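Blinded run. Sample ID left blank on purpose so nobody reads anything into the name before looking at the predicted structure. Input follows.
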Amino acid sequence: MSIRFGLLYLGTLTLLATIAPLATLTQAQDAADKAAQQRAANRNLEAQESSSHDTRVDISPPKDDAKNHPASREAVEGLDGSDAPDTTGVQEFHPWNPMKALKSLEVGDFYFKRKNYRAALERYKEALTYKEGDAAASYKIALCQEKLGDRAEARKYYEQYLKILPEGPLAKDAHSSLARLENAH
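Blinded prediction complete.
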């Protein structure tokens, strides 16, 4: 009986020696999972909160602004939506956005290839609102104006192209188009 008991005792110890590290490993994995879940929960809370609540931008004028710029009130008169006349000559502002300008040029080219010159003209003009002084848009506007029969506008935009890029890749074409417009009179 003692040999059987000894073998049983030895088997139990071997089993415990095998199970104990597995239990420790399982506990460590559970702790790591809980920590990962807590980090994910914290990120979700941060994503739901707005940073704009914490930071308020001060847009009030500087301390001595009225003294240093006495005519500034008249310069912005009427821009605040009041009934006072706008005497500044300030018109609508468009942000400088070369990507929107490029997209407008692409869409304009699409219309131009299909001989829809009015639609192309509008898209090329839109490109100039987002990237003022764009040589390619100016040249393409001139082409559309010429196709639509408005020689004065075509001349204006060919000249504008030449002001921007006097030695540009289309300068020779612009000069020949100007000469052709002059001879057409």
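Unblinding after everyone has recorded impressions. The chain has two domains: 2-48, 98-183.
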